[in-house]
Inverse folding.
């Protein structure tokens, strides 16, 4: 058998190939988690495109297969915008828990949810915890957009927030056709007032500071950003995975352990 699988995408493998590799050779799986939501500067699937792109680059470095992406997530402020399709929190938590259970049944022991949408964060953490407590899985949630901006401040002047410079750059690097720079409209960008919670939000491009971190469509900057975030993600995840090695696989922990 080869030292690496012919593909890291689980959906492209034959069933007996999974049996050959999991869990003896590969015991972990990356699950890209996204949403279908208005962004203003990039496509509706932005929150899915980015974690899929990261998964493709991380899989060989982490010895992990890639599960099919979950393209719908929990939406709040942008549900009213055309093309946005969301799930309720309870529905999403159950969905991700059952997806995880199915992956465990196939032999995977470690599940890494690669999340690209802030609305998914809390239910994903709940699903990961349930998989750990009920089934003894080693599970984590990685939110790439939570990485400190200081790590890639040399690329853009500010992160920009939702659909700002950083998120636009990531889509541009991974799937350029979903970042048509000539189509974005400045009137779709604005700074939200923290004293106001509006449903729907007045802008799909939500800036943190006025006129800073606006969508940037420079492909060279985008490539640099993707490289930085990929390396940062790989290093951070590897530290956790290495620590997991020392804990072994001993089955479900007591219910009161966290």
């Amino acid at each position: 058998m080869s030292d690496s699988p012919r593909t890291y995408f689980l959906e492209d493998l034959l069933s007996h190939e999974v049996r050959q590799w999991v869990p003896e050779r590969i015991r972990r799986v990356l699950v890209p988690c996204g949403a279908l939501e208005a962004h203003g500067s990039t496509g509706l699937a932005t929150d899915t495109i980015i974690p899929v792109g990261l998964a493709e680059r991380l899989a060989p470095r982490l010895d992990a297969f890639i599960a099919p992406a979950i393209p719908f997530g929990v939406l709040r402020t942008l549900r009213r915008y055309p093309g946005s399709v969301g799930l309720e929190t309870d529905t999403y938590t159950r969905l991700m828990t059952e997806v995880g259970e199915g992956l465990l049944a196939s032999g995977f022991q470690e599940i890494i949810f690669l999340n690209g949408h802030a609305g998914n964060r809390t239910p994903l953490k709940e699903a990961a915890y349930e998989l750990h407590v009920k089934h003894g899985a080693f599970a984590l949630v990685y939110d790439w957009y939570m990485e400190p901006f200081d790590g890639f401040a040399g690329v853009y002047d500010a992160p920009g927030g939702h659909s700002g410079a950083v998120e636009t750059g990531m889509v541009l690097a991974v799937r350029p056709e979903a970042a048509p720079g000539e189509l974005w409209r400045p009137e779709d960008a604005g700074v939200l007032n923290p004293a106001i919670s509006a449903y729907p939000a007045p802008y799909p491009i939500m800036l943190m500071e006025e006129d800073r971190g606006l969508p940037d469509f420079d492909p060279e900057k985008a490539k640099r950003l993707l490289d930085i975030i990929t390396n940062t993600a790989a290093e951070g995840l590897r530290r956790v995975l290495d620590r997991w090695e020392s804990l072994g696989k001993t089955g479900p922990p007591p219910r009161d352990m966290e």
User: Anything to note?
Assistant: The domain at 23-241 is CATH 3.40.50.10310 (Rossmann fold). Residues 219-247 form the longest helix (29 residues).
